[in-house]
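Input (Succinate-semialdehyde dehydrogenase):
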Amino acid sequence: MSIELKDPSLLEPRALIAGEWIAGASQADVINPATGEVVARAADLGVDDMRRAIDAAYAAGPAWSAKTAKERADILMRWHDLMMENQEDLAQILTAEMGKPIVESRGEIAYGASFIRWFAEEARRIYGDIIPAPMADRRMMVLRQPIGVVGSITPWNFPNAMIARKVAPALAAGCTFVGRPAEDTPLSATAMAVLAQRAGVPDGVINIVTGTDAAGLGLELCTNFKVRKLTFTGSTEVGRILMRQCAQNITKLSLELGGNAPFIVFDDADVDAAVDGAIAAKFRNGGQTCVCANRIYAQSGIYDAFVERLAEKVAALQVGPGHDDQTQIGPLINTDGVAKVQRHLDDAVAQGARVLTGGKAHALGGLYFEPTVVADISKGMALLNEETFGPLAPVARFNTEEEAITQANDTEFGLAAYFFSRDLSRMWRVSEALEYGIVGVNSGVVSTAEAPFGGVKASGLGREGSRYGIEDFLEMKYICVTL
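Output:
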């Protein structure tokens, strides 16, 4: 399949190691989920290649960290500018390999670039401290220095932004980077790396290792002592595996893991605004985001009105291939994703849930599934306990504020939560009671480079974005001088 690009060189199927583009001994097909066509044949590298990439990052580290903060910031800012100048081409590549509607892909490129700009600015704000000494002949200070080589493993659902959220603070801090993008979506990563080279990122500072051996490549990132930090976005199950593997070298970890986000609508909410917020939180990227509203709770007083209006608006969502500007819901990423949506739906219906709209594979066939709303959800249904990761919105009824909080917190996960209310006191009470790293109040879209992104409980460790996001890429050194 050909993608129409203004700059065809951005469609780069090779991997990047030490500034050289590597085709590898074998290649793997990158499939467009909307059509089943081959977009490109990407380099399918192995563990030895990963080791070479780590060595390259390790060798490039001293010179990169020795640059001034301003020098690193200027390079990052040029990278940001190139990303935005090539926004349309990057979006077309993203949609072709992932299936996301092109309008959302354009938004993701801007979102990803915003992290590069943010951390370009933060590079010049990495401060130390002078500590008042307890003795007259002592001088005491704290320095913050780059941790070293950073390994990154990113998912397919945001193949541009997830890398940007990790590589930008790493480079701003003075670290070097080895990225392993998801095997389904390697082309967004390599396109970013092409632009990074043009921006002046030195050879070896950014390395992109594409390949299908997820376990082998991940193990090398976890156990190679030259890697001093691993940052991962993906499932909690895989996160636990990586934690065990990183324990050998006490490798520092940032983990952005699974979510099971509740979306609560109280009686005093603006119902129309809540419906719009629920659609934004649930159906963005076809429900394939870690902060998707996985469980919707509506209070009894507005329950019927809410589910009726939600079903009406969801039924009008336009399903189709991502390259069409009118498309709002694209295909799911693979057959496993479709099967999970169907399994959750069948389980809910078998236990008494009502399908209000959708409820089956879409007439387009392939990996398309109808945007679906199901009402009368009850405890024990699989979709309350597992991330669906698809266009299925389940709605349950609740009576009291305490009941809503209890049900929302009844999960091992704690990434994002949402609620709608016009009661100012309730806004504070519920925000503080929800056991989540992110809480959206009267909004279904809350992520931005300026704010910390991350979860609690089994949803992960650390934060990305914001002024806090660079901390995990730095080591603290205490220096004591006797005069």
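Residues 261 and 328 are 21 Å apart (CA to CA).
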